[in-house]
Amino acid sequence: MQAHEIDYHIYGEEMQYVEIELDPQEIVIAEAGSFMMMDNNIQMETIFGDGSGQENGLFGKLLSAGKRVLTGESLFMTAFINQNNTKSKVSFASPYPGKIIPIDLTQFGGKFICQKDSFLCAAKGVSVGIEFSKKLGRGLFGGEGFIMQKIEGDGLAFVHTGGTLAKKELAAGEILKVDTGCIVGFTKNVDYDIEFIGGIKNSIFGGEGLFYATLRGPGTVYVQSLPFSRLADRIIASAPKAGGNSRDEGSLLGGLGSLLDGDRRF
């Protein structure tokens, strides 16, 4: 086994965090901003990319980091090393309400494909890179679901989801149609493509976008009910406009005033 063998425990219901127990000299890597707390004997170290390709010198490090830039992530990740002679713990928190999913890559054939923002942390030795699309439709119309990350190796990785999590086991040839932003991830045998919704009324008045993802089995698919982009859009739409009077937002007269002023849209 190449990846470090780590133990973990997930706490909470809607705002979860994962506590990882490290043996002496064991390492876990994590995205910047996901750290929550750690024991005193754990040391933090900033590394290029996910730490893979280090044995190939500077070129290997740049290649590892470059894969992350293509998915819109930072060049760097953080490694947490247990420098103590006994077990120590470090915890990482989900950035918004949802669930944390442990992914044992040995059960998924060494590879799992996920949304670019869903990766939280993993055992040292797990590689995090970009999943290149070979189909034109994904590149032109994929939107949120086009840029996917691949997590490879034989260790544990953790991804986070928004809202309520649904796990679907697809039989061979079985198709699941999903909003592109609602995809969390899927196993490597699942075939993924983009499909046009169709219909003039659907396209103009539907409000659901022009495309959705089709996932064809066999394999496992994880779906989230609340993508972060959807949550952010609702927050932005509800925010008071610059120069507006936020004191009237909760009142009936405030709503009527907005209608009369032409500020309230349907």
Automatic annotation (TrEMBL):
Transmembrane segments: none annotated. Signal peptide: none annotated. This is TIGR00266 family protein. Coiled coil: none annotated. It comes from the Bacteria. Pfam families: AIM24.
